[in-house]
Write a structure and sequence with these properties.
The chain has about 90 residues and is an alpha+beta fold. The chain has 4 helices and 3 strands, in the order βααββαα.
Length: about 90
C-alpha cells in the first residue's frame, strides 16, 4: 500500500487517483495515518462483503431466534456509542 502526506495528495491529486486504481493509498497528516483512498471497485467489493456478512448474521438470527429486548438495546447502544466516538 502506498503512503502519501496530505500535502502531496493535495498537490498531486490526479496522480494519486491513478495510483488507487491499482492499490490503496494511505494519507498521512503530521506523520500519522488518517485516511485511505481506494478504487471504486475495491469499495464495491468491501461493501458487498459487509452486506453479505450482515445478511448472514440476520439469517442466523432468524434461524436461532430473535434477540431479546435487552440484547437489542445493548447492541443498538454499542452502535450509537461507536458512531459518537468515531465522529
Amino acid at each position: 500500500m502506498k503512503e502519501a502526506a496530505a500535502t502531496e495528495v493535495k498537490n498531486k491529486f490526479g496522480q494519486i487517483l491513478e495510483t488507487v486504481v491499482s492499490e490503496p493509498v494511505t494519507i498521512e497528516k503530521k506523520g500519522r495515518p488518517v485516511a485511505v483512498i481506494v478504487s471504486i471497485s475495491e469499495y464495491q467489493r468491501l461493501t458487498e462483503l459487509e452486506d453479505r456478512y450482515w445478511g448472514e448474521r440476520a439469517q442466523r438470527a432468524l434461524e436461532g431466534g430473535l434477540l431479546s429486548e435487552d440484547d437489542t438495546k445493548n447492541w443498538l447502544r454499542g452502535k450509537l456509542d461507536a458512531k459518537v466516538a468515531g465522529e
